[in-house]
Amino acid sequence: MDSTDKSRREWNRLIKSFSYACNGFKNAFVQERNLQIHSLISLIVIAAGFFFGISKSEWLVILLLIGGMITAELLNTAIERVVDLVTKDYHPLAKQAKDIAAAAVFVYAFTAIIIGLVIFLPYLNII
Ligand SMILES: Nc1ncnc2c1ncn2[C@@H]1O[C@H](COP(=O)(O)OP(=O)(O)OP(=O)(O)O)[C@@H](O)[C@H]1O
């Protein structure tokens, strides 16, 4: 196999991985109301960023928060699916796994809200 074939196969693998990730996002988005709500809030925050003309460093923080929030929600969904795959019966460890994953999203969301307020409140001339 020459190097052109090898790099074509690498590209195909990369494209396949990307399409699996797109499918994963689509599935989670269609089925998870929380992910839809977080995506909507993200769009509102982006619109607010344009409206208030926030600085470049503020944009970087906001984008990091949005990416982190959606990533946390996706990981939470993945954990829920794995738990449901392992058992449909009540199990204290299943409960712990789901509740801890949900807590991770909550902690991230709470942090994001605080940082969001620190960024946007000065633009509202409230503080
Ligand atoms: N197999 C299980 N064993 C024990 N507790 C479970 C099990 N499955 C879910 N639970 C618990 O029941 C509650 C509801 O879980 P559920 O799977 O409906 O997710 P959820 O928190 O409603 O999230 P979502 O709305 O994203 O589905 C949670 O406290 C969860 O820990």
Automatic annotation (TrEMBL):
Gene3D superfamilies per the UniProt record, alphabetical: 1.10.287.3610
Positions of substrate binding: R13, E73
Residues holding a divalent metal cation: E32, E80
Cofactor: record remark: Mn(2+), Zn(2+), Cd(2+) and Co(2+) support activity to lesser extents.
Bilayer topology annotation: Multi-pass membrane protein
Gene Ontology CC entries for this record: plasma membrane
Annotated active site: E73
Binding residues for ATP: R13, Y20, E32, E80, K98, D99
Superkingdom of the organism of origin: Bacteria
Keyword Phosphoprotein on entry: no
Keywords: ATP-binding, Cell membrane, Kinase, Lipid biosynthesis, Lipid metabolism, Magnesium, Membrane, Metal-binding, Nucleotide-binding, Phospholipid biosynthesis, Phospholipid metabolism, Transferase, Transmembrane, Transmembrane helix
Location in or out of the cell: Cell membrane
Single GO MF annotation: kinase activity
Example GO BP: phospholipid biosynthetic process
Parts of the chain that traverse the membrane: 35-54, 60-79, 100-124
InterPro entries: DAGK, DAGK_sf, UDPK
Cofactor needs: Mg(2+)
Major location (coarse): membrane
Chain segments annotated as coiled-coil in the UniProt record: none
Family: Belongs to the bacterial diacylglycerol kinase family.
Protein name, per record: Diacylglycerol kinase family protein
